[in-house]
Amino acid sequence: MIFRSRRILLNLGIALLTIGLSFYLGSPNFATDSLHSDVQTLVKMGARVAGSPAAERASEFLVNEYRKAGYEVEVQSFNYPKFADVGSDLTVNGTAIRVWAMVRSIAGNPSGRLVAVPNYGKPEDYKTINVKGAIALVRRGGGMTFAQKIDQAAAAGAIAIVIVNNQSDNVRGMLMQPPAIPAVAISGKEGALLFAQKAEVQATLNVQSRPNAIGRNVIAHLPNVTQPKLIIGGHFDSVENSPGANDNASGTAVVLGLARQLAKSPQAQQIWFMGFDGEEDGLRGSKAFVEQADLKFLANLKGMLNFDMVGINDRLLVDGSGALSAIAKSASGDVRSSRFGGSDHMSFKAKEVPTLFFFRGREPNYHSPNDQRVEPRLLVETQQTASRIVTQLLK
Ligand code: BES
Ligand code: ZN
To answer: Which of 2, 77, 150, 348 sits in a 20 to 30 Å window from 377, CA-based?
Structure first.
């Protein structure tokens, strides 16, 4: 009996030792693993274009992760002009064909005869046809702008216009002003089939667009931290058709990593962590943030640290303004200063907040669909350098 319980104790001891040892040995990889998996989670969401469902999912992911790390989280919404087609189509003979609303087209759901306009839709081309109350089908080109084609169709009484691209794919046309009637483009391939119809057909156009985007900044801080000394942030949105691994899931993950690392430290009492939205549309999120902030709040900041594209290229670059670049240099030997790239720190710099911009420069996949991967060790190295700088700054 004694023997047996001793053996159980021994086994228990070995088990505990093994668990402890594996934690100890594994611990250097914890940061790497979570930073890398955060990047992968964001990349899997697809292009996080500001105002899109994917960007909203990214903001929700950040909210959850910051909460899990022990922070209070606010989402700051902001609105700005940004046209988007949110699923327009043309239904002919019961079949819906995807069409693209021209940028700035009015929305609507017009229904009527689909009338093929000869040639390119010049005024004389309407003499032989009747488009009153109808949807005009017009070829692209012929030395006319989209706006001129729309004006002619509307003048002839059309209630909507479908412009057929002069190549087999579709085109995203842009108008300088909202047109009088809903205006869309269709691919050359599908347009050719419509032109080939012998008899006149009924069609319904469904133009679903919105003129504005809603951006969402994620702001995380410990309870009762109303006036931070430091803002640490990076944008989480990406450009269209790019999953934005390096630009900028990398910076987003490093900011989150710093928040996790510092959660229990005294420094966290002086920091706000932020994920900015709408950076790719012209620093919209950071601008919205500094515009709504009190002047006193901004004046009390010792600095703003921005992380953008920190997962590719070995050399970490830090561009500093004011007192911060000297501190960055003393905290890390490899840090070199360089002027490059527009990002969210500029919104703070414009309000005279000292800034540090952490980045690793351009790379071949910048703003492309291939921006799918980062190097985990570079994320970790960025976080380590940054945390040394944060410690120096908040001493
Ligand atoms: N991440 C880039 C900025 C950048 C580029 C940093 C290269 C480091 C190296 C950022 O998202 C971006 O594309 N910015 C735009 C300007 C912005 C105002 C739309 C740029 O730099 O062209
Ligand atoms: Zn970026």
So the answer is: 348
